Amino acid sequence: MRVAVIAPPYPLEEAPAPPLGVCYVAAAFEAAGCEVAIFDFVVSEYSKAKLAKLMDEFKPDVVGSTSVTLNFTSAAQIVCDAKDINPAILTMMGGPHVSFYAKETLAQYPGIDMIIRGEGEQTIAELVPVLKDPGSWSGIKGITYREGGGVAETGTRDFIKDLDTLPFPSRHLLPLSRYKALGFPISIITSRGCPHQCIFCLGRRMVGAKVRYRDPVLVVDEIEHLLSLGFPRINVADDLFASNKERVAAVCGEIRRRNLNFGWSAFARVNTVDEEVVRTMKEAGCDCIAFGIESGNTEMLKRVKKGITKEQVLKAKEVCEKVGMSVHGSFIVGLPGETAETLAETEKFANGLKFLHGYHYLAPFPGTTLYEDIDKYEIELLTRDWSLYDANRPVTRTPGASPEDVIAFVHRFEAECNEEWAKLEKGYIDGTNTPMENLRVEGNRKLPVSFKVIAGDMIDSCGALPSAGAVTDTEALDILSDRISAETGFDPILVKKVLSDFKRGGHITIVEKPDGTRTWAWSPNPAHARKN
After folding, report:
1. How many CB atoms lie within 10 A of CB 253?
2. How far apart are CA 304 and CA 315, in angstroms?
3. pLDDT, tens digit, 9 for 90 and up, residues 463-494
4. Residue 315 belongs to a domain with what CATH number?
5. How far is CA 94 from each of CA 171, 407, 417, rounded to the nearest angstrom?
6. Model-level pTM?
7. CATH of the domain at 91
8. Which residue in 6, 11, 437, 478 is a FRET match for 84, CA 20 to 30 A apart?
9. Counting Cβ atoms within 10 Å, is residue 25 exposed (0-12), middle (13-18) or buried (19+)?
């Protein structure tokens, strides 16, 4: 059986990295004996014609996708496009959004046949042997599917007890050179589960209240493998990496035992870190911890069941400063009870922390307590256009804070950031920046160029070269740069810098075609990319 897993588009503003959930799904299908391909539309712009070509080449029996709320709409449409291209295939979706919006999704999208709810790996293992026998589907827990003229739903599946039984994510099916060229950290998980009850978060319902841990040796095996593939930086995507001191010591100790030298970041709660934990993480290479702080108003923290205090935020800040750990804090505007006064209190508190922080608009995702009890919390949903649920625009209103109020608040913060950035840009031009400041400016300038070159498939479309010997490699890079600059309108010098970085990093290479001509191409995945 052939299975195509769709990696749906993900906006540049959200730092698109190799999609971990997609790779876990692909690995589950591979472990069940399927031949699997990932159709990646994160680093290759989507079109229905491109999908049709991929399907014609691979000829899948099943096409599925997993997504979060912000890219659910595009993922669902791509799956429906696949059904339109070949009505004989079975289509399915999984992920946090559809897990709690299953029947509604099937009602809205006739081209989707099945929803896999919650953790999907065990469901996939049981489902694959009976996929061609719909009469047996009723015995598989964790699915919602079409049956006759209606919809059937089986019982809820228990959470996977032993995460070490899961195969490593099938990242070998991704175009790894494109992701390395884009430059965002690659993510891993070392655990699943969250016992906390924040009303705006899906974590507890999606992965369970009990935290389940992977063997530290297997975790660091995966890290070592990713480093060997050329990814220099890791993001630990656990909800609660720092919540268990012994666990932190075990993972970090294994990293140090192997003398692995790399930078990494992790998420943590302010009430779970102390000097010992932060120092242990730093000694193993961690250089940034991200804290969800949410609000500077004590009553709002209680209302959303965050379970932290402002004093704990200040203590965590003090600990990180003492150890020399960088910190990033995130706040949510528009929470239940938000007013002009609470916004001002949050702003004052955030500014007083003196570390990097940002603001997101509240986005009540399906499945959260907030979404399901929306009236209780006096939140008005302004839209159910899920593509707008990226936390970068208001989709809600509270009695005390209109969308215009929260927009003005965020815009004022962004204006301050832009003012600081303008100083860096000026320093770049004037030659007054430090080398590190210039690197930041250049990186910011290069990023949209890189993403356009990568996702626009421009290495493929602009890469043709004369036969071997006709031009040098330097001239070949100039040819590619000139073509891309002409097609995109980007500054030729900037394009040349981006392409030089790609070449220097080994992400692009010149290959000879059977007819003797040459072309630029993305470097193939290393032979050891598959991790067993």
Report:
1. 15
2. 21
3. 999 876 678 889 999 999 999 999 999 999 99
4. 3.20.20.70
5. 18, 33, 37
6. 0.96
7. 3.40.50.280
8. 11
9. buried
Last residue of a domain, one of 108, 130, 153: 153
- Report the C-alpha gap between 366 and 96 in whole angstroms: 8
- Report, as ranges of residue numbers, the positions in the chain whose pLDDT lies below 70: 468-469, 532
Contacts (Cβ under 8 Å, ≥6 apart) of 147: 134, 137
Q: Which amino acid is at 448?
A: P
Tell me the C-alpha distance between 268 and 471, whole Å. Answer: 53
Measure the CA–CA gap between 532 and 515, rounded to whole angstroms.
Answer: 37
Q: Based on the fold, state whether residues 244 and 391 are members of the same structural domain.
A: yes
Amino acid in the structure at residue 102 = A
Residue 160: DSSP 8-state: P
Chain-centroid distance of CA 37 in Å reads: 19
Chain segment 281-324, per-residue pLDDT in tens = 999 999 999 999 999 999 999 999 999 999 999 999 999 999 99
Strand order in the sheet with 326-333: 186-188, 233-236, 263-268, 286-294, 326-333, 356-361
Tell the residue number behind the tokens 């959260």, with chain if given: 368
Report the C-alpha gap between 119 and 142 in whole angstroms. 9
What per-residue confidence (pLDDT) applies to 468?
A: 64
